[in-house]
UniProtKB/TrEMBL annotation, chains A, B:
Pfam family, one: Cupin_2
Enzyme Commission number(s) from the entry: 1.13.11.24
GO MF: quercetin 2,3-dioxygenase activity
Keyword Kinase recorded: no
Keyword Membrane found: no
Protein name stated in the entry: Quercetin 2,3-dioxygenase
Record lineage: Bacteria, Pseudomonadati, Pseudomonadota, Gammaproteobacteria, Oceanospirillales
UniProt domain Cupin type-2: residue ranges: 100-154, 271-323
Main enzyme class: oxidoreductase
Biological source species: Halomonas elongata
InterPro entries: Cupin_2 (IPR013096), QDO-like (IPR053146), RmlC-like_jellyroll (IPR014710), RmlC_Cupin_sf (IPR011051)
Length: 396, 396
């Protein structure tokens, strides 16, 4: 983490007009609660947690692949990307890596909406009474109360798990032990211990099913579109609700309509590009996970480069910008709460049907963004920053 | 590419005793031809080609993912990693990226041994009268004259193709046109043009089969061990002839017994590690391709970091060293001719059965390497370099 980027002290206490809250769909946190959080966060705008550490409170941080707090859980290494404490009680997040046979038996979370994305290898996925073969890039959305589980089929399989909740990770951790090792155990028959599982149920938001890995016919994940409301579903790799904007395309893997407004997941894909204007958000947290290529980011005073597997969490109030830094870059955004989805719907042209970014750039509708600014949780401050920097440079 | 690494001018004209040539198995180039090349190369020891350029003659060079010379060939982007001119007429190499339906119809090369490794997505593979489903990490070895072809099944599939020969890439290029675009065309029915295919047959070492993509029953690639001689075969992801050495494990995906001594392919997997001692080789070229994590390299005066998809070619005479730079790093080596296989067999403990690097480091048998040094194409010069650097530092 290069902390020498010249950044002036800047107090960001602007808040957006009330209209933005209309975009929070029912069941999300109340606008008042979000606003309170937004105000708290701006006080910490200059801090970025040192590389590879979980901050323990809500502030920007950056983790390189596989280097965070880790637990050895029944044949997998659980690498924690966010605990409730790090996200201001908004979400938790982890990668789960294991050999053939490792996984998590069928269970449900009463209060936690889960999203799964397969980063590497292959897995069997149980979801809501069905069984799927999950390949790299396949996605699943698992609302509160829906039964789900997975078991890995390749020598190294890596699953990303997003929890829109604050009590699930405690349960997963209670299944295992802290570990210093970075690598998954070798393929193995996992001996599941019902006592441990009961302890996990007491420790957090989890309830295991009677049958751990039911024998059901397994089928490939082929779904290419999002359902209309909050139901369990799978989505095939490189599918989703697609928009094109400028040189990139972005696909919603889960919209806020699929998550009761709690969050949405967007996969962006594009070529090397210019740094977008620096900006911040008052209400929502943006989490960046690099899948392919590289993402150069400015986060407050820091410049970081995300390589595949690296993660950055940018809460409300943190000034940030990014550019894609490789000819083929793919990164995921987990944005919570889901109110900022209208930005992507404003910037992008819907109905993009290709499965790869456009060979010739399309129009970028930033004009529409500017027109809609009042309804977006977005404060663009590139110009102000340049003025401040110019004044700083003159004084120096 | 950082070219500021302080490297003294160093003339490397040491050649190894004759015993090393005994390790070149039949059908490889003659020792005299290799020796002549070794002597030529040492004269260029200080040069490293600027990033992302093919040098046009045999010297070290470094290419970031997808940034080299590119051709649009029937629904794929062929990104050239090495032409015959860049390798001293030893090999050619490329990545082939495409959407669903793109690929190469069944063909054979009379004088070129091909190796295929699937970097991303999924493909159908035709090999020697059989049809396979090829997943990420699966490998195939295709001796001279063996029929093979592939067709992609995922929205983005990326295949690495190694040619132990000098005439195949000209044929592939003749199938298409140069392109500036970095990204594959979208999924498409590819219209194969028999006239173009005939032109390709005239341009280089290729002969197409009558039936382009024969309908055969397709099966998964499950083979876990190498055959004993030079025959076409497939190998499942993370399989091969495995050795453990220190914190890493390495697997031969193709041994020189499988290639008539022309080359071998080794996949190394390990945690973050120390820089190995600087060294050079008199006779063989080493090609490094990063699959996961990152590889820090010293190549002559340069320090480079290979991220996934990046490539470095290190011919005989180039001083080099490397370290794995991430908790989970995987890189492939294509070493040609195959005489240096005995190094891995000396350093490593054979019979490693796990599918992931060891959770506790094993012994590194460098003592055995030192004992066998006379039979290895290896000149370790770490100590000499430190003396030279110390003298330089004192003068400065």
């Amino acid at each position: 983490m290069n902390d020498t980027y010249p950044w002036p002290v800047f107090e960001a206490d602007t808040v957006l007009p009330a209209s933005v809250y209309d975009r929070v769909v029912p069941h999300a946190e109340t606008p008042e609660a979000l606003l309170a959080k937004g105000r708290t966060i701006t006080a910490r705008i200059q801090q970025v947690t040192p590389e590879d550490r979980l901050p323990g409170h809500k502030q920007p941080y950056y983790l390189r692949a596989d280097r965070s707090e880790r637990y050895l859980v029944a044949g997998t290494v659980v690498n924690v990307l966010a605990r409730a404490a790090d996200s201001g009680d908004m979400f938790e997040m982890a990668t789960v890596t294991g050999g053939k046979g490792a996984g998590q038996p069928v269970h449900r979370h009463a209060q936690t909406h889960v999203a799964l994305y397969l980063l590497d290898g292959e897995a069997e996925l149980w979801l809501d009474g069905e069984r799927f073969v999950m390949k790299k890039g396949d996605f699943a959305s698992v609302p509160e109360g829906s039964e789900h589980g997975f078991r890995f089929c390749a020598h190294r399989t890596k699953m990303m798990v997003w929890y829109a909740g604050t009590e699930a990770l405690a349960a997963i951790r209670a299944l295992g032990e802290p570990t210093d090792c970075h690598v998954q155990p070798d393929d193995a028959e996992v001996a599941w211990d019902r006592e441990r599982m009961a302890a996990a149920e007491r420790a957090g938001d989890i309830a295991f099913a009677d049958e751990m890995f039911p024998e059901l016919p397994a089928r490939a994940i082929t779904r290419a579109t999002l359902p209309e409301d909050t139901v369990p579903y799978t989505l095939a790799a490189d599918e989703g609700r697609k928009f094109v904007g400028g040189p990139e395309y972005f696909a919603l893997l889960a919209s806020q309509e699929n998550t009761g407004g709690k969050f949405f997941v967007v996969m962006s894909q594009g070529p090397e590009s210019e740094m977008i204007p620096r900006h911040y958000h008052n209400l929502h947290t943006e989490n960046f996970f690099c899948v392919d290529g590289a993402l150069d980011m400015i986060v407050n005073r820091s410049r970081v480069t995300l390589s595949p597997g690296d993660f950055a969490s940018v809460p409300a109030g943190a000034i940030h910008a990014y550019r894609m830094a490789c000819p083929f870059t793919r990164f995921m955004g987990f944005l919570t709460p889901g109110l900022f989805q209208n930005f992507f719907e404003t910037l992008g042209e819907p109905g993009y049907e290709a499965n790869v970014y456009p060979r010739e750039p399309h129009q970028l509708r930033f004009d529409r963004v500017l027109k809609e600014l009042e309804s977006l949780d977005l404060v663009v401050i590139e110009e102000q920053m340049r003025e401040i920097e110019a004044a700083e440079a003159e004084r120096a």
